[in-house]
Design goal:
This protein is mainly α. Helix content is 52%, strand content 0%. The protein has five helices and no strands.
Length: 150
């Protein structure tokens, strides 16, 4: 499974992000491109431990059953998947600024390596290993890049 601890995967993600434009049309969801990039930055902050949302009851119940499917190699995230509380973005954003912020967070994640991943549980899936965080962050980024056709 692709993950952000692979240099070629990071290069791919950044190349795809560079193709995003403010006018890029979404294929699903409500966010525009700049909002989606900020949303992805907030997701990276989860993996880095900068955001510590509480565990959800529904996640405690369903998380262990859904996690193997969600983390399956080659299976992209589903359209309109639920969003972790606090990651939704609805205000106006500037794409260039948001892209630079996300690239910085990705670089920080990569530089820190496995030791830089949070031990705080994901709000739905629970505890994740560094490799799971890295793979999930790639899947999340891929999901939103596909949302805008890049």
């Amino acid at each position: 499974m692709k993950n952000l601890f692979e240099a070629e995967t990071v290069d791919e993600v950044k190349e795809r992000m560079a193709r995003l434009r403010p006018e890029s049309a979404r294929q699903w969801g409500k966010m525009n491109a700049a909002q989606a990039v900020e949303h992805c930055s907030r997701g990276m902050e989860l993996a880095l431990g900068d955001r510590l949302p509480p565990r959800l009851l529904i996640g405690r119940i369903l998380g262990p059953m859904i996690k193997p499917k969600a983390f399956a190699d080659g299976e992209p995230m589903r359209r309109n998947s639920p969003t972790v509380q606090g990651l939704t973005v609805s205000d106006d954003r500037e794409l260039g600024e948001e892209r630079a912020r996300l690239c910085g967070l990705i670089d920080r994640f990569v530089a820190a390596g496995p030791a830089g991943c949070t031990s705080h549980p994901h709000s739905f899936f629970g505890r994740l290993t560094p490799d799971e965080w890295s793979a999930w962050m790639y899947k999340h980024l891929d999901h939103h890049l596909r949302q805008f056709g890049v």
